[in-house]
Design a protein that fits this description.
Elements lengths: L12 H15 L8 E7 L6 H10 L2 E6 L1 H4 L3 H8 L4 E3 L6 H4 L2 H9 L7 E6 L8 H7 L4 E6 L2 H7 L7 E4 L7 H23 L11 E4 L3 H12 L5 E4 L15 E2 L2 H7 L2 E4 L18 E5 L3 H5 L1 H6 L3 E6 L3 E6 L4 E5 L18 H17 L7 E4 L2 H16 L3
Parallel strand pairs: 1-2, 1-4, 2-3, 4-5, 5-6, 6-15, 7-8, 7-10, 8-9, 10-11, 11-14
Antiparallel strand pairs: 12-13, 13-14
Helix pairs in contact: 1-2, 1-14, 6-7, 9-10, 14-15
Length: about 400
């Protein structure tokens, strides 16, 4: 078997090799057929190379679909991935928007399978959600099932009529460490973007008033790291008041989304699904900054806002995109509205990403090798499987006994 390509330029050899070995051990109990095709949607990070290598070894062919937010600025990583045996990378025309068309999605899959192929969809962000009913009917016998990594992606699959199982790992407790890691990156790099592009520090409370929309794992993580930057006057809003009850005792101001939009000019959108309704954009302050934890499409419904005239793009660069509201107020999307850590190198020296990658991979392997465990429609990975992954990870990386 050829040697895996685990590093590119800066990633820690130690953690890359350890991560590869960990994922190999998770997969070793499962035998895959010779005709298996895996379609995997994943960020184009160097830290993903161990995971991509293992998937390519499990499949007859791995079709890697890089998420646009990280693919566009990481052509060198894409070239490295293309060198992996049994791995093909989808070309630049295969985007989330393109895959919303059921006929396009069908044609894309047909390019890579044969009449006797079985295939898995390892989704990340609901890329196949709009086409899944059509794909399930057209590939009734060949489609094994779907796995979904994220909560915003799972939301897109809700209310779909599916005749195949979808296993979600979006709400597993073992995803929490990676969510907090992402929160730290987002706060750190939003600070860096503000410094480089505007000469502002994140804790410049004479100019910036900070608000967080969404009080899930990512929102709570963002608040934690904002407080670590000595920012004391933080507002938080969520559509579920129960999530807000934890904050007053910790000195964080709770409020409605409407009030937060009026009073804050640096807003972290941490919902994964339409954080700011269109009608509230007219209330946003001039010279406001927005950072998101997913994408501008999911967090802001940006294409719809532009089509409806609620936002007009003015200009910008790799790190910032400038828009105007209908009232002429200027609004700046950090990282162009993508997750504020995507333009930068992330995942170094922290093995938490292998937890959710292992769960995602294991869900697919169980769909393939233990189909009787699953029914058509959406279901979570079992608690016992999650516990087993956590225990194995603690032993592998931290000598847990």
């Amino acid at each position: 078997m050829p040697q895996p390509i685990l590093t590119h330029s800066y990633y820690s050899d130690f953690y890359a090799a350890k991560g590869y070995d960990f994922l190999k051990q998770v997969a070793k109990s499962y035998s895959t057929p010779n005709n298996l095709i895996i379609f995997s949607v994943m960020h184009c990070y160097e830290g993903s190379l161990p995971y991509i290598n293992v998937l390519a070894e499990l499949a007859h062919q791995l079709i890697f679909i890089p998420k646009g937010a990280t693919a566009n600025g990481n052509s060198a990583i894409k070239e490295t991935i293309e060198k992996l045996p049994s791995c093909s990378i989808a070309n630049d025309t295969v985007t989330k928007e393109q895959l919303r068309d059921p006929l396009f999605a069908e044609a894309f899959i047909r390019q890579h399978i044969t009449a006797d192929s079985k295939f898995l969809l390892l989704d990340h962000g609901g890329y196949f959600s709009h086409a899944i009913e059509h794909l399930g009917n057209v590939f009734q016998e060949q489609l094994i099932g779907i796995t979904e990594l994220t909560a915003n992606g799972l939301y897109k699959y809700l209310n779909r009529t599916m005749n195949h199982p979808l296993v979600t790992v979006s709400h597993l407790s073992i995803k929490a460490p990676a969510d907090y890691e992402a929160s730290e990156c987002i706060v750190h790099y939003s600070d860096q973007i503000l410094r480089e592009e505007f000469g502002l520090k994140l804790n410049n409370d004479g100019f910036l008033k900070v608000g967080v929309i969404g009080a899930g794992n990512l929102g709570c993580g963002v608040i934690q790291y904002l407080k670590g930057k000595a920012i004391g006057n933080i507002y938080v809003a969520d559509i579920d008041p129960r999530r807000l009850t934890q904050f007053p005792r910790n000195g964080v101001q709770v409020c409605s989304i409407e009030r937060l939009i009026r009073e804050c000019n640096l807003i972290y959108c941490c919902t994964g699904n339409g954080a700011i309704p269109e009608h509230l954009l007219d209330n946003i302050s001039d010279n406001s900054f927005i950072a998101t934890v997913t994408s501008a499409d999911d967090e802001l419904n940006l294409p719809t806002l532009i089509a409806n005239g609620a936002l007009t793009e003015v200009g910008g660069n790799k790190l910032i995109r400038e828009y105007q509201t209908r009232k002429g107020h200027r609004l700046y999307l950090l990282a162009g509205g993508e997750s504020a850590n995507t333009p930068f190198k992330t995942g170094m020296g922290d093995p938490t990403l292998y937890l959710f990658e292992a769960a995602h991979m294991l869900a697919g392997l169980q769909l393939l090798c233990q189909p009787d465990r699953f029914n058509s429609g959406i279901q979570p990975l079992s608690e016992s499987d999650e516990t087993a992954i956590a225990e194995h990870w603690l032993r592998h990386f931290y000598n847990y006994q």
